[in-house]
Amino acid sequence: MGALSSLTPTASWFRLDDESAVGTVRRFAVELANAVDLGERKAADIAIIVTELATNLVKHAEDGTLLVRLVRHDDNVGVEIVSIDSAPGMADLDAMREDGRSTTGTLGIGLGAVSRLAHRSEGFSVPGRGSILTAQLWREAQPPPPWADGLTRPLTGETVSGDCYAVRTAGGRRQVMVCDGLGHGPLAAAAAQTAFGIFHTAPDEPPMMLVERLHRGMSHTRGAALTVAEIDPDAGVVRTCGMGNVAATVITGDERRSTVSMPGIAGHGRGVIKEFEYPFGAESLLVMHSDGVSDKWSLNHSPGLSTRSPLLIAAAVLRDAGVRRDDACVLAARIRP
């Protein structure tokens, strides 16, 4: 079973408002790489990647933020950097990866260096809306691209998030969860951590049984809103089961369909637990998010984004619809990586 953890306590977001922040995020990334024994060479590569992406945000971007976090796949571990900004964006991102290309008269080697040094890097940019750039370096060989991925961001001023996402493949079942611990801060994070642990250690069972298990197992916490979804490629459906206001949306072509979540709080009361089923084909996309993300988001402003990686999609939704007055979490999933 492989999964990316969204509850690594060392994950940190950095605002890139001035050049002094570049050194701060570089030191943090190197410390993170050393903590998981990526090796001296890869730690040095991480330093270069972070410096290039952070400097790019300081020089060119508006509302630039950088996420540095650990990622895991089975026993393999890596460091991932996600760069997000709101403007000005780039008309030809591939061209900007070529050495010597620059919009400001500088040497222009930054994005090319990121592509060469990272095990996996990708980006998406729309002029006027901003850019999203990602890079990963793994301790061992890079794992296959994930079919589901997500991001969490704590409320401004908090160091931990009460939201989490989780991904698992159990008994052939492709299952995801988004959980929103009530409130924010350490107690909300503890509720989310409990849900995360139950989800990953539960036996092979469908979404409704998983939610029932989560409901029982979270009774000692302050509770949470959560949704579990299961993508079944053979049946061509996605099955969802939710309690509370975690949103799940199925997008197929131009059609966007919101799934049903029953009222209630996982861990408290006697809420109705019910499973629903929706068509889900090879080109379909599932987007789930906590109420720290407005439901007014749309992928229509970013042509081609819906065919890109789940991480890029989650980052774009978080950038465009995430609110700063609450913890926020977005997950995207599809049948194929």
Describe the structure.
- This protein is of the alpha+beta class.
- The chain folds into 2 domains: 127 residues, Heat Shock Protein 90; 186 residues, Phosphatase 2c, domain 1 (4-Layer Sandwich), CATH 3.60.40.10.
- The chain is 26% helix and 31% strand.
- The chain has 7 helices and 15 strands.
- The strands form 3 sheets. A 5-stranded antiparallel beta sheet has the order 1-2-3-5-4, sandwiched between helices. A 5-stranded antiparallel beta sheet has the order 6-15-14-11-12, covered by helices on one side. A 5-stranded antiparallel beta sheet has the order 7-8-9-10-13.
- Strand 4 and strand 5 form a beta hairpin.
- Helix 1 runs antiparallel to helix 2, helix 2 runs antiparallel to helix 4 and helix 5 crosses helix 6.
- It is globular and about 50 Å long.
- The two termini are 16 Å apart.
- The N terminus is likely disordered.
Class of the largest domain, according to the CATH hierarchy? Answer: Alpha Beta
Helix share, percent? 25-40%
Beta-strand percent range: 25-35%
The arrangement of helices and strands along the chain is EHHEEHHEEEEEHHEEEEEEHE
Largest sheet: 5 strands, antiparallel
CATH architectural grouping of the largest domain? 4-Layer Sandwich
Distance between the termini: 16 Å
Rg for CA atoms: 19 Å
Q: Biggest sheet: strands side by side, in what order? A: 1-2-3-5-4
Structural class: alpha+beta
Mean pLDDT: 90
What's the name of the CATH homologous superfamily of the largest domain? PPM-type phosphatase domain
Instruction: Based on Cα principal axes, name the global outline.
Output: globular
Q: What is the domain tally?
A: 2
Q: Output the CATH topology of the largest domain.
A: Phosphatase 2c, domain 1
Pfam family, one: SpoIIE
Domain PPM-type phosphatase: 159-335
Protein name: Transcriptional regulator
InterPro entries: HATPase_C_sf, HATPase_dom, PPM-type-like_dom_sf, PPM-type_phosphatase-like_dom, Ptase_RsbX
